[in-house]
Design goal:
Blueprint lengths: L9 H13 L7 H4 L14 E4 L7 H16 L5 H12 L4 H9 L8 H12 L16 H6 L2 H17 L4 E4 L2 H10 L9 E4 H6 L7 E11 L3 H6 L4 H8 L1 E6 L18 H4 L1 H16 L5 E4 L2 H14 L5 E4 H10 L1
Parallel strand pairs: 1-2, 2-3, 4-5, 4-6, 6-7
């Protein structure tokens, strides 16, 4: 089944067109997508590859895009008309949306710091892996969630062929939605023998013999990303990792694990209902702040962005949001 394109909200159509045309949600060049790894000397040819996906390296752009969408949603125009015009302009060869993002971010896509932290952590744990850089295909997950299953199936076949052509046997994926697509969705359309694991799974199984110590004593709470906990049922691994870090006390929110409250991001929801998404972000942030934790830990780029917005809406200044990879990088150094 494939969604009638006339019924797809303009914001989602914009993301879908970027994926099919440029192989990433923002429609930037593949070289720009891989820029975060410059200087890391990761081999392209390796049986195990680090799959960066779309998200962490676009942090500045995505944050600016969401700020714009929220302002539009609250304006008399709404978001449908401007996004519809953006789609039309792209078809005419004018991508004013990308121009706006470049101006708003000063041309910076984001430094990919979390991805760099992941690479550093995996190396310290003795994992041998490479990175396909510009040759990394898009998993196409948003196409599936939008309802464009025919386009997703086409993208799945292309992505699988590209991974196999590069001799990939195992994938360590940074983004939960990419992990779900590579492990579950793509094999539904094309045969795959590639082993796929999320970053936190790769870390959890290699902790033995490594000392992790956070620089100061802190109380932390953990937010389960929907894709990780509900779709992939990865609930215990992040808690095992956090529990192994000295100086960290984990306090659980009332709703956690597979029953964790959604932060309002993912599946393109925030691109269609930005104001509602912001409300959900604040609601989840409130639940997490009420645990008394000083740090909110999660491991999804969308969740990090949403929870930072939620904490900002609550005007809470003594709680910070951190990706688990950032926590691990600091703890291994300490």
């Amino acid at each position: 089944m494939m969604a009638n394109k006339d019924l797809v909200p303009p914001g989602l159509a914009y993301l879908a067109d970027n994926i099919t045309a440029k192989q990433n949600v923002l429609g930037v060049s593949r070289a720009e997508s891989a820029r975060w790894a410059k200087g890391l000397d990761l081999p392209r040819r390796a049986a195990t590859t680090f799959f960066a996906g779309c998200g962490y390296q676009y942090s500045n752009q995505l944050d600016c895009l969401m700020s714009l969408l929220r302002r539009l949603d609250k304006s008399p125009l709404g978001i449908e008309t401007p996004m519809g015009l953006a789609n039309l302009q792209k078809k005419l060869g004018l991508d004013l949306g990308s121009v706006y993002l470049k101006i708003a971010t000063g041309g910076r896509a984001g430094d990919g710091r979390t991805l760099i932290d992941m690479v550093a952590v995996l190396k310290k744990l003795g994992v041998e892996f490479g990175y396909l850089a510009e040759d990394e295909p898009c998993c196409g997950a948003p196409l599936h969630f939008i309802g464009m299953e025919t386009k997703f199936a086409q993208n799945a076949g292309q992505a699988q062929k590209q991974l196999e052509a590069n001799g990939i046997e195992r994938v360590i994926s940074a983004v939960p939605s990419c992990t779900y697509a590579l492990r579950v969705l793509i094999p539904q359309h094309t045969p795959s023998k590639i082993i796929v694991e999320h970053f936190v799974e790769a870390v959890a199984k290699r902790l033995e013999g490594h000392k992790l110590r956070y620089p100061e004593k802190v109380k932390v709470t953990y937010h389960d990303p929907c894709q990780l906990a509900r779709f992939l049922e990865i609930v215990e691994a992040p808690r095992r990792v956090i529990g192994s870090i000295e100086n960290m006390e984990l306090v659980e929110p009332a709703a956690s694990g597979q029953w964790a409250t959604c932060c309002g991001g993912g599946g393109g929801f925030e691109a269609v209902f930005p104001e509602f998404s912001q409300i959900l972000a604040a609601n989840r942030a409130r639940e997490l702040v009420e645990t008394g934790a000083q740090i909110i830990i999660t491991d999804c780029p969308g969740c990090v962005m949403q929870l930072e917005e939620g904490v900002k809406q609550l005007k809470v200044s003594n709680v910070k949001v951190m990706d688990l990879a950032e926590v691990l990088a600091v703890s291994l150094e300490a």
